[in-house]
Amino acid sequence: MPLPDDLSHSLQALLGTRFSVTQADRGHHAQSESFHSAPPPDAVVWPRTTEEVARIVAACADAGVPLVAWGAGTSLEGHALAYRGGVTLDLSQMDRVIEIRAPDMQVTVQPGVTREALNTELRATGLFFPVDPGANASLGGMASTRASGTTAVRYGTMRDNVLALQVVMADGRVIRTGTRAAKSSAGYDLTGLFVGAEGTLGIITELTLKLHGQPEEVASAVCAFETLDHAVECVSATIQSGIPMARIEFVDAATARAFNLHSGASLPEMPHLMVEFHGSPGSVREDATRFGEIAEDFGATGFDWATTPEDRARLWRMRHGAYHACLALRSGAKGVVTDVCVPMSELPAAVHAAAEDIAAAGLLGPIVGHVGDGNFHSLLLVDPDDKAEIAAAKEVARKMAERALSVGGTITGEHGIGVGKRDLMAAQHGDGWQVMGAIKQALDPQDILNPGKMLPDRN
Amino acid sequence: MPLPDDLSHSLQALLGTRFSVTQADRGHHAQSESFHSAPPPDAVVWPRTTEEVARIVAACADAGVPLVAWGAGTSLEGHALAYRGGVTLDLSQMDRVIEIRAPDMQVTVQPGVTREALNTELRATGLFFPVDPGANASLGGMASTRASGTTAVRYGTMRDNVLALQVVMADGRVIRTGTRAAKSSAGYDLTGLFVGAEGTLGIITELTLKLHGQPEEVASAVCAFETLDHAVECVSATIQSGIPMARIEFVDAATARAFNLHSGASLPEMPHLMVEFHGSPGSVREDATRFGEIAEDFGATGFDWATTPEDRARLWRMRHGAYHACLALRSGAKGVVTDVCVPMSELPAAVHAAAEDIAAAGLLGPIVGHVGDGNFHSLLLVDPDDKAEIAAAKEVARKMAERALSVGGTITGEHGIGVGKRDLMAAQHGDGWQVMGAIKQALDPQDILNPGKMLPDRN
After folding, report:
1. A201 and A229 part of one domain
2. How far is CA A454 from CA A66, A109, A244, A335, in A?
3. Could you list the mean pLDDT of each consecutive 10-residue stretch along chain B, which spans 459 residues?
4. Which CATH number characterizes residue B319's domain?
5. Chain A residues touching residue B160 (CB < 8 angstroms)
6. Which residue in chain A is spatially nearest to B420 when comparing CA positions?
7. Which InterPro entries does the entry link to (chains A, B) (predicted)?
8. Domain boundary among B294, B323, B352
């Protein structure tokens, strides 16, 4: 459905060639990293300033036309797809690092800056931004999905690393949330409300983030275990021992095979843990020794230490490439990617049960996980044209989520809700889901910000 | 104003003697730790279960009568006072530790459990709950004010240590927020919204908290500095060096004098830092040595190490008693207590300016602070019957807050808003304050939950 003429004209007048209704531009914004699909948006805009975003939102609000924010397009639950049409707000040209405040270990960025671009910019400061979901996502998108990843076990998630935001509200008003102080008790935590809101409450146009000192010493290793249970039980024991792991990642035997076939590795086709330690030379040595002792108790073998920065980069590039390496295990496959997160004591049983469900469904579904915080994923490989297979994969994902709920966990640790997990929200939150709906109704009465995602239907 | 008869009868039928309208019980709930005062509530109730709270709230909602939650009565900005009358919900009998889950380092408690009672209960587990605002506050109250205190620099604030809540909403519905997983991306962060909401959005009836391992080794020390500037600049340098301080507290010369007069200390009457290190024996030694070197650069003298648990307990009891020791510096005085929080690089100038303002106003106002996160307090000692003096103290507090805002900080790091800082909310949040008001309106349309606090007037 084309946009109303008035809206088209005003967006064109405001943005010139940064407003597009071409098939190519719209089609590009109908794509997703995962199996989710939707028709293209009616138009795409590329604002460069907060003021432009505010004027775009106000114009869409006047016309009652939906707006969907787009960062790097790497989300996994269909968050950025325009299921109800309208305008996709591509924020990739809002890519300025506005200010680095090294003494306060803070940076202010526009939302289109990617995490890799930020860390490149920070290289000379001795600081880095640790949150690392694998994909080179935009920081606005990472805030909006409350992203985390491999280092969250040590440095926290986006919830812990966003200090302040600038946000354009559904009526075009611009607000600032949070401050540059380390903590505040001044009213509702609006920053925390917008982080993880998936663009349904406002458009993030600026973020102030916490930075961390680059560790003096880093050590990484990979080791193999006889069984999945041994590997995951080793993780629980390690975390409970209090060793401050910087990363502790699980990959199963199928993923090890994918690394061998598609990432140039030569690992035994067994479950593995990939670990990293950050600290002073003394503390890293102590932590690594203690971890080695625990791992040995669980039968770990083939310890391979990455001693140079290049070796470490190769190791984590391989881990980050797991999704695409696993997709390549089956030609033409798309991934039904799902994640859950459970309390640490429940992790071994939850991973074990997921593996059994995948096998029982006759699916190929490698399991990997940021297991240090109880978070794991399965990448269920499906033929995108085979509806029965997609349904079987979704059923496995649903079982994983329900099992997570039954042991005190959550239906998603880091991927978010989007459209993919909306039908599980009532099971997780009960009446709390309606409370979320009431907040949405209060702040976006027309339901124009990323409609159809996450929230209950309006009455 | 007495309660409506119907409401009185139904509360009495529900609660028996745990419903009171006596002058004594009402008067007890009209008191505050600070200079704020209000008329007593019309009635006090002492529920014991979530279901009782839900029925009380539903009954008050039917009658349109305000409800104010009361924990331990230690808040400083008038949070728990019944400015608009109604029912005070004293949660002190909801004091059960419901479940300790040691392997997951979590505990679930009722809101009336105090932090000291919890830590006594945890003693045998090797775990502890670190958030420590000084006062023996209730955990529900600490969540509601987003409390922090001496250890926040290492372990975070209530924002970081509350995993899940049970909350009674303004219409009596009971919801659960959060999960026992370490992280979640499943929808709006309602837990984060209720933490710091000061009882204006719902009544917290259960909390699941993160616990931490008792450190293997602890070392505490106190040392003196020639000037306030030297002490505070030492803090900035220490934090920027990345030493993982467990505590780093500033007390000024007036506070040192108060400790000498009222806490049995014999400190030089100079500014001091009180520090603590947690870790392994090796890491504590390393951290303490590095801190000692930095402190020496700023001219620290008289290092006094507390080597036994008893000595350490005495040291921190003295620090926690600072408020009452300082009050005793002037007989009959009440405290206009205020706190602000600024970015670390702004801390030395902010503390210096506050000290100058206090001196210029001719007030006695000791300064102390959880300076490791940029948070400091002044305890302005006033004659409660001297309106001019109270006005002068409030003016100093206002200047401190405005200066904090002008350098990117917040008007309160941990005390909250209550009635005391409501008139500074617009300056801090701009239109964001109206966004808070819209959320309040959506979730408490009758404005019965702690009305008159924190939020903008209704239109």
Report:
1. no
2. 15, 26, 34, 21
3. 94 98 96 86 98 98 98 93 96 98 96 98 96 95 96 96 98 98 98 98 98 94 95 92 93 96 94 95 91 96 90 93 93 93 95 96 96 95 93 96 98 96 97 98 98 92
4. 3.30.70.2190
5. 160
6. A186
7. FAD-bd_oxidored_4_C, FAD-bd_PCMH, FAD-bd_PCMH-like_sf, FAD-bd_PCMH_sub2, FAD-linked_Oxase-like_C, Oxid_FAD_bind_N, Vanillyl_alc_oxidase_C-sub2
8. B323
Chain A contact for B436 (CB, 8 A cutoff) = yes
Task: Assess whether A105 and A203 both reside in one domain.
Answer: yes
Taking the Cβ of residue B184 and every Cβ of chain A, the question of whether any pair is shorter than 8 Å is answered with yes
Residue B276 burial (10 A CB sphere; 0-12, 13-18, 19+):
buried
Confidence bin at A348 (pLDDT 50/70/90): very high
CB contact under 8 A, B176 and A429: yes
Interface of B with A in 54-113 (CB under 8 A): 101, 103-106
pLDDT (0 to 100) of residue A33: 80
CB contact under 8 A, B443 and A435: yes
Q: What angle do CA B249, B253, B258 make, to 5 degrees?
A: 90
User: What is the model's pLDDT at position B156?
Assistant: 97
B201 chain-A contacts, CB cut-off 8 A:
188
Q: Are A40 and A154 in contact (CB under 8 A)?
A: no
Contact B194, B165 (CB under 8 A): yes
Alpha-carbon span A22 to A29, nearest angstrom = 11
CA distance B198 to B178: 18
Smallest CA–CA separation between B266 and chain A, in Å? 33
Confirm or reject contact between B283 and chain A (CB < 8 A): yes
β B87-90/B67-70 pair status = parallel
The pLDDT of residue B241: 87
Tokens of A410: 């959550």
- Across the interface, of B159, B283, B431, the residue whose CB is closest to A175 is B431
Domain extent for A70: 5-90
The Cα of A36 is separated from the nearest Cα of chain B by a number of Å equal to 18
The domain spanning residue B11 has which CATH number?
A: 3.30.43.10
Closest CA to A342 of A232, A441, A228: A232
Q: Do B431 and A152 lie within an 8 Å CB cutoff?
A: no
What phi and psi, each to the nearest 5 degrees, are found at residue A424?
A: -105, -5
- Mean pLDDT computed over every residue of chain A: 95
H or E stretch covering A69: strand A67-70
Radius of gyration, alpha carbons of chain B: 22
| Whole-complex ipTM | 0.96
Token code pair at residue A106: 């803070």
Q: Would you tell me which residues 223-262 of chain A have a C-beta closer than 8 angstroms to some C-beta of chain B?
A: 236, 240, 242
Q: Which residues of A touch B146 (CB under 8 A)?
A: 183-185, 189
Enumerate the residues of chain B whose CB falls inside 8 A of the CB of residue A413. 181-185
How far does chain B reach from its first CA to its final CA, in angstroms? 25
Same domain, A136 and A61: no
Residue B414 lies in a domain: no
pLDDT tens-digit series, residues A232-287: 999 989 988 889 999 999 999 999 999 999 999 999 999 999 999 999 898 899 89
Residue pair B26/B43 in contact (Cβ under 8 Å)? The answer is yes
Position B459 scores a pLDDT of: 66
Residue A268 and residue A209 in one domain: no
Quick one: pLDDT at residue A459?
Answer: 66
Check B341 against A174: CB less than 8 A apart: no
A vs B: CB pairs below 8 A: 257
Picking from A90, A121, A146, the residue at the C-terminal end of a domain is A90
| Domains of chain A: total | 3
Side-chain half-sphere CA neighbours of B45 within 13 A = 29
Measure A320 CA to nearest chain B CA, in Å: 20
In the sheet that B43-45 helps form, which strands lie side by side, from edge to edge?
B19-20, B43-45, B87-90, B67-70
Mutation target to probe the B interface, by most B beta carbons within 10 A, among A183, A191, A211, A423 is A183
- Domain identity same for B271 and B291: yes
